[in-house]
Amino acid sequence: MTLERLFFSRIRMGETTAAAAALVFGLAVFSSPDYGQSMTIPDTDSYVVAQASSTRAPAEDSAMVFETLTVRKEGAVLFVEIAAPPMNLLGPELVRDLVSLIQRAEADDAVQVLVFKSADPDYFISHVDVTRIKQYREEAAKLTGEASIALLFRRLSTSRLITIAQIEGRVRGAGSEFVLACDMRFAARESAIFSQPEQAFGTIPGGGAVQHLTRLMGRARALEVILSAGDYDAELAERYGWINRALPAKALSDFVRSLALRIASFPASGRVVVKERINAITLASVEDFRRDSDLFGEGVRAPEAQRQTQAAFKRGFQTRDAEMDLARMLGDLR
Question: What is the pTM of this model?
């Protein structure tokens, strides 16, 4: 067990300070005059091909040092462990490190595959930190030119790199949208839990879940998942198409490692063409992702959404213990 996993397995938080001022600050970002304004970025599913043909200088392994990520290289694969205590919220530090990781990995011809896993056995990525929206959106803009998590995640989907999520613990909201942006998802049968809880607050997922889940599951199941704001275990997630496979926890790491190394061993040119052609069929446009992001922003500004969020904080929202059963807690908000 790594030091990070040992730390996460022992840490337990009490009630965090979730003052109304912090909540209002986070939600008020969406009411700012520049919310929804955006720069034009290319909507090209051939971006992955352009990346593959560009000239890149190898990145130094010593440069792969981050605050919230631990990176280990094996062959052409980077194994990336997420460690953002106390519960792997998607805040500005984690977004900053993900942006930097993507930039450095894409700049290194020797890197072909990224594998993401968590140092925390209970949380992969819990969801966004709603008290720090402005800050993490600013970090996302450093990669895409737009202050949008949705477009950051879509950018990962168009990368020349093959990305694999190795999921243990809870992955909800933007955490779910992050793994949906990855090319493949494999989860521990005993511990992985998936959710899109946004409807409990009266808004829609804004980071790509609407686009991905509808294509992966079909209309009826996507509606069920999004409208219920419920928790789904790994076996049901596999049946619905949310993930590739649910595997026993003891077999998960070896399976993902073997697959990643096998993929990386084949010629890069073939992978690039395969991914570009599949993206052309399955990946929604920049405009669709941007529209969902804007609708999410409109939703969280609504008075009902703000009341629901304040009520959730009073019940322990964004605290480690309370979110172990977030679906139940959100159901009690009614």
Answer: 0.84
